[in-house]
């Protein structure tokens, strides 16, 4: 029973990382109806920037919030420079750009910092409150992730800008008619998604070590969580990410082994697409033709 509770708690901690990344994927999908395949590599690059700043002597939390701000600006700039010019082009154009960005960020990180794995510091190493089921860092990342998700929820629920972003995502044409700058809200959505991804990267790096491929597997788990919860429902995607974290941890411990955990995530993606494409909390859209 002790081992089961440990796997359950550890899976919940991993699921919080997937939830952040899944929410980032859904935010971009809702604003542009495209999947950003470079989301994980953008998060990895932000994590390398954080590691460089910490190594230079900048305090951890100053670095944390500084990287969030830098990721926010960088994500919005990427939308403005690379995505907005092709918003009326065929879907494959955006797919090609996001895959190109994936390769560019991965190669650039390897060129600047090398491909050797390195450790990443955690401000929660001294915490013992999570024992015996969670390490100090796992407990800390759960609290940080839940706090970030709560801030994002409050932003979209109670602020004028957040409500405008939701309106622009649901009906861009009607939003433009009432004066909402749809292009600006989409850029802000990309910026917020990049910031959420950087949170996932900085929380995952102490557990997995930092290298240019840090987020490759995590992105698949997050994508599985987004599909499971519903690619059209941000909070459903966050719940889906947590469920995937728990399920893959228990499956790795008791069913398929650690070597096949990633295959498990891919199997979830296929199963959801076949059985319920809208996800557990998503809604199907019926178009009259």
UniProtKB/TrEMBL annotation:
Keyword DNA-binding: no
Protein name (record): Branched-chain amino acid ABC transporter permease
Family per similarity comment: Belongs to the binding-protein-dependent transport system permease family. LivHM subfamily.
Ranges that cross the membrane: 12-29, 60-79, 91-113, 133-156, 177-201, 262-282
Lipid metabolism keyword on record: no
Subcellular compartments: Cell membrane
Keywords attached to this entry: Amino-acid transport, Cell membrane, Membrane, Transmembrane, Transmembrane helix, Transport
Main location: membrane
Membrane disposition: Multi-pass membrane protein
Superkingdom of the organism of origin: Bacteria
